[in-house]
Amino acid sequence: MYDQALIDDLNQKARHLRRNIVLSIDVGRAGHLGGSCSAADVVAALYFYKMHHDPKNPELRDRDRVIFSKGHAALAQYAALAQCGYFPESELPKTKTLGAMLQGHPDFLKTPGIEAGTGSLGQGLSIALGMALGMRMNGIEGRKCYAIVGDGELEEGQIWEAAMAAASFKVDNLVAIVDRNRLQASDRTENIINIGDMEGKWRTFGWEVLEIDGHNMAEICEALDKADTIKGKPTVIIANTIKGKGISFAENQVGFHNSALSQEQYDRALAELQ
Fold it and tell me: CA-to-CA distance for 118 and 91, rounded, in angstroms?
């Protein structure tokens, strides 16, 4: 269905995003490597395949919007924004330094391309719902608001309040994407709070549910395209991913949720992402 050249290009862009994530973390400075890398393929598909946006005009009225609800993993979004040209890639190594435009959680006042300040977990889907409703009220048709949500974040009650409201108001220009890497800050998600049948919960709350391999670029593109055809209800894409994807020593390791890299780890990660 999708041209192999397109898929190869998107995979290469995702690889570059992961490299930029490592550059953003640098050596000896704690950063959310795991959850940023697990979301990189989805982020690449959004920014370089699906979304209508303009780096030269971040406030474009009829743009698609992305809310990184799991704001601690905004390094993936920063990497995409830099690669798109919203700001120079030279800003990435300054992340989380005093006065820098890129901080640990996204700040829409400092960073072009950021739609809202997020990172207080559970709130991003509500923000995205409000934006999607605003787009509908203002006659912006054919555009979406995407909310990238962590699977550990689904333990927050506000997520499900927003889910109920979105279905009740039939907000079909809202797409939630769950980065289902099955690890959160200190353990596996089911060992913290086991939410059970994730797909069934979203269906019960009135959403169209699509489940994909979150590292299969063709599946990601197909799900994003499928969401465009769903009318009368919101869509959730459950993307099964691997925390730390693309960096061998970090894959599926809870310790890389938020940790500093040694010089050896930093050099090894960059070498793997050449």
Answer: 20
